[in-house]
Write a structure and sequence with these properties.
The chain has about 190 residues and is an alpha+beta fold. The N and C termini lie far apart (about 60 Å). About 20% of the residues lie in helices and about 50% in strands. The chain has an eight-stranded antiparallel β-barrel. It has one domain: Porin (Beta Barrel), CATH 2.40.160. The chain is globular. It is built from two helices and ten strands.
Length: about 190
């Protein structure tokens, strides 16, 4: 048996190292949120909006999923986090929080962000095609970056037989500020 040339051994070692390169915790979290959003969307794809008659009149539910925020900095700012939406069907109220944010501001490396986005003053109006309306506001900080958001969400329940999932998006006029600059942005939530 002939010994492998040193160059072949080096190439094999580099190839193996590339296959087992560690993913940073930030990359793992960011990818996990993207995967979860896709999984929830796939499960509810094709499901109609929940009809008003299929919404419960008593009780409450907690929906868990993900949030995505994109903001039009020169290189898009993209943030992902977890979502918890609380719905009180008897009182027709919606609230919750978005937290554990990870993302990139203006093309920088991924990092974790402290802070959360509160969802409050939400109502359910079954007469509307988007029966969920709620306010959102919060501040996220990471390194020297500060992101401030404030606006209104509109959304719906999904599931023909009852509200199995919630999806909501920010309304036009919502405020997205990155490091003091007011920019176009959007916030979307999907939870089940």
């Amino acid at each position: 048996m002939r010994p492998l040339p040193a160059l072949a051994l080096l190439a094999a070692g580099l190839s193996l190292a590339a296959c087992t390169a560690a993913v940073s915790p930030e990359e793992a979290a960011f990818d996990d949120y993207a995967d979860l959003a896709a999984e929830i969307a796939d499960r509810w794809a094709g499901q109609p909006a929940t009809p008003a008659g299929a919404l419960p009149v008593f009780g409450s539910s907690t929906y868990r999923g993900t949030a995505l925020m994109t903001i039009g900095t020169p290189i898009t700012t993209e943030m992902r986090g977890d979502a918890q939406i609380e719905v009180d069907f008897f009182a027709d109220e919606v609230g919750g929080s978005l937290g554990n944010w990870v993302g990139t501001v203006n093309g920088q490396d991924l990092r974790f962000y402290a802070g959360s986005v509160a969802i409050d003053d939400g109502v359910i109006n079954v007469a509307s095609p988007l029966p969920i309306r709620a306010d959102f506001a919060g501040t996220l900080t990471g390194g020297t970056d500060v992101i401030v958001v404030n606006g209104e969400l509109a959304g719906r329940f999904r599931g023909a037989a009852g509200p199995g999932a919630v999806e909501a998006k920010s309304e036009t006029g919502s405020l997205f500020i990155v490091n003091g600059s007011v920019l176009d942005g959007s916030l979307s939530i999907i939870a089940e």
